[in-house]
Amino acid sequence: MKAKYITLPKLSPYIDFKKYKIFKENHKFFIKELSKLVKKKEYKLLDVGCGNGQLLYQIVKRLSNINCIGTDREFKFIETAKKFKGLKNVHFETLDFYKNKGLYDFVFCTSVFQIFQEYKKPLNKLLSLVKDGGYIFVDGLFNSHDVEVRMQYCDNSNKHAKNLWRRDWSQHSIKSIKSFLKNKKLKQIRFKEVPMEKNIKFNNKIHVNQYTFRDAKNRNLITNGTNIILNRKLLIIKK
């Protein structure tokens, strides 16, 4: 079975202007970590796979000395970003992940890395886009155990996805990532758990929608309609 990652804009939240009003919990955490590294000088930031620029909107609202660029392969997501007035100072381009070029102080790759079934090629690409001394933020479903997970699914709950096999939610092990990066002569490699402080209710109309449940330690864990626990962590790399 050769399942592919498919965006399906008709089922996506990234073509709705109302979504810009929502400050996502993971975006709060990313910006908190980014703010620790930003000083008074000017910076260039690239968001690879930016969707409709929701994260970039929150960044430019808070950090005015960062010049932001967003790229995504889905034309409709980029068109939504270009039409939103709150992002008028951000440059957007419809571009495949591996076609990105240039050097940046910060490179973000959020809610994207899990679509790749192998991790070496996308990590090498991200490393090629950041300046020496710059930072990469990768939001992935990194597994704390030495286990690699690849997910294929078919959501028959709606007509747009019915009988369509897709792939997503690959979970790469932290041990594998660290082992791959250790010979890259990087200044820093850190994994930080992304907290989920908000309860997300289950929506039975969207079978793969994300929602939370409480574990025995009263922590919010994120899952979805495929019943996979999403081990969301932030990988921060200093080149």
Describe it.
The protein has helices at residues 25-35, 54-62, 75-83, 120-128, 174-181; strands at residues 43-48, 66-72, 91-94, 104-110, 130-140, 152-154, 165-167, 188-193, 211-214, 220-223, 233-238. The mean pLDDT is 93. Helix content is 19%, strand content 26%. The chain has a single domain (9-199, 231-238), classed as Vaccinia Virus protein VP39 (Rossmann fold, 3-Layer(aba) Sandwich). By secondary structure, the protein is of the alpha/beta class. It is built from five helices and eleven strands, in the order αβαβαββαβββαββββ. Strands 3-2-1-4-5-11-8 form a seven-stranded mixed β-sheet, sandwiched between helices. Strands 6-7 form a two-stranded antiparallel sheet. α3 (75-83) links the parallel β2 (66-72) and β3.
CATH topology: Rossmann fold
CATH superfamily membership:
Vaccinia Virus protein VP39
The unreliable regions are none
The number of distinct helices, counting runs of at least 4 residues, comes to 5
List the main descriptive attributes of the protein structure presented here.
two-stranded antiparallel sheet; 7-stranded mixed β-sheet; Rossmann fold; single chain; 26% strand; alpha/beta; 239 residues; 19% helix; 5 helices; globular
Question: What's the helix and strand layout?
Answer:
Layout: H1 25-35, E1 43-48, H2 54-62, E2 66-72, H3 75-83, E3 91-94, E4 104-110, H4 120-128, E5 130-140, E6 152-154, E7 165-167, H5 174-181, E8 188-193, E9 211-214, E10 220-223, E11 233-238
Parallel strand pairs: 1-2, 1-4, 2-3, 4-5
Antiparallel strand pairs: 5-11, 6-7, 8-11, 9-10
